[in-house]
Amino acid sequence: MKRGIFIFGFLVLIVLNGHSQFIQTITSADGRFLLNKIEAPLLGLEQNIKTQSIDTVYFNDQIQFQKIEGFGYTLTGGSAYLLHQMPVQNRAAILKELFGQGPNDLNINYLRISIGASDLDATVFSYDDLMEGEVDPALKKMSIAKDQEFLIPILKEIQSIQPHLKLIASPWSPPVWMKDNKQSKGGHLLPQFYATYAQYFVKYIQMMQAEGLIINAVTIQNEPEHGGNNPSMLMTAVEQNAFIKNHLGPAFKKQGIQTEIVIWDHNADNPNYPIQILNDSLTKSFISAAAFHLYLGHESALSKLHQAHPDKKIYFTEQWTGAKGNFAGDFMWHMEHIVIGTMSNWSSMVLEWNLANDPTYGPHTPGGCTECLGALTIAGSDLKRNVSYYIIGQVAPFIPAGSARIQTTSSNNQIQSIGFKRPDGKKVLVALNTGKEAVFTIDFEHKKYNFTLPEKSASTIVW
Asked: Which one, of 388, 399, 443, lies nearest residue 422 by Cα?
């Protein structure tokens, strides 16, 4: 029997042909490892050459928590435009890399899109823009023509690569004639247009379905407590509750629409907003999930919502990386708080913010985000992979939809971890080493397996 030796750090493992393999994928804060794969044998600790280990992660797949729905990004209108402008071969290659299921692909399966413009579109628009003073309560002029230019063609290309693609759609603002301030920025939805706006959601879902695109979920309003973006709208918990209970929920039910209704879609500093809505039992009957961002607050707030309403799902739908950040700091923070942190607190989805930008951090609306760093920077045929590419790349290829989070505990808080059991029966451990290089042991089914974690790095281990 042939033997091979892998040497990594100060841990040496003997590979015996014919044994199943551990695969360890590593990204380090210093960029020395970028989704580097290392294979190690599925052997017990007694068969390792070196057996000393400082830290242990205990892995128990008998205790299971939430099912995972997916990982991905927001495909903004600006992202779609930049992808659309790429040479066909270049675009096909990067979309395959992002959404394909091959050994070097990211296998992204969930995207967030905007209903109308987000602030990372080149211009502000809704699907029913009118002359000043006009209204269209019957939505006779509603059209998704703007999305048909770039967004929908890109989505169709992605769907041909990723057949299990799911979409969650969020409005930044309704048509301005529905708002009390008649502006794209800020303001509130006028009560006389609640029923009309519910039909706006219905027609949008139906129009996208006619394009062959299923909208799996909608949030009611992106960041309803932030009226300073362009576009944006303010919406209190009382307003969101009334809109769902009296208008959107019944409209979906009447039309037989199966799209999930998702509330909140804002920061973890105010879990009482979605809790207050879910405390209304009639409204709750229409709602599937609550969504969070983490620009304020702490990820532990997601567990507060779960404790109050354990029958409702929790999604994590947005976190940006910025022009003034750095790879090391952003990678470690996002892995700790967004990936491990939110999923340890019951999130079943992790979406980073925009998929792509140009070298000037555009396109964006006047007053939109001027420093949002995409997972990709696209300049014609030139492409750069940025930090959020590696954040999602550290988990999306290894934790498919339907995986269950399982119990893991670490003997040393220098190593933060989260574990999963996949539908195919394989196990996954995501381990974040926040300190110096360390050997750690996975303790699983009365056997122990040693691994080296480079200094300040994330490892995803599959066996």
From this structure: 399
In this prediction the pTM is: 0.94
The model's confidence at residue 41, banded by pLDDT at 50, 70 and 90, is: low
Please indicate, yes or no, whether residues 260 and 153 belong to a single structural domain of this protein: yes
* Pick from 164, 270, 197, 183: nearest CA to 227: 183
44 and 82 both lie in a single domain: no
Residues 333 and 379 in one domain: yes
CA 383, 389, 395, 400 torsion: positive or negative?
negative
For residues 448 and 58, is the Cβ–Cβ distance under 8 A? no
Kindly report, residue by residue over 198-228, the tens digit of the pLDDT.
Answer: 999 999 999 999 999 999 999 999 999 999 9
330-368 pLDDT per residue, tens = 999 999 999 999 999 999 999 999 999 999 999 999 999
| Beta bridge partner(s), residue 460 | 25, 430
**Are the C-beta atoms of 198 and 178 separated by less than 8 Å?**
no
Our count of domains for the chain comes to 2
Question: How far from the centroid of its chain's Cα atoms is residue 341's Cα?
Answer: 13
Query: What does the block give as tokens for 75?
Result: 């495909």
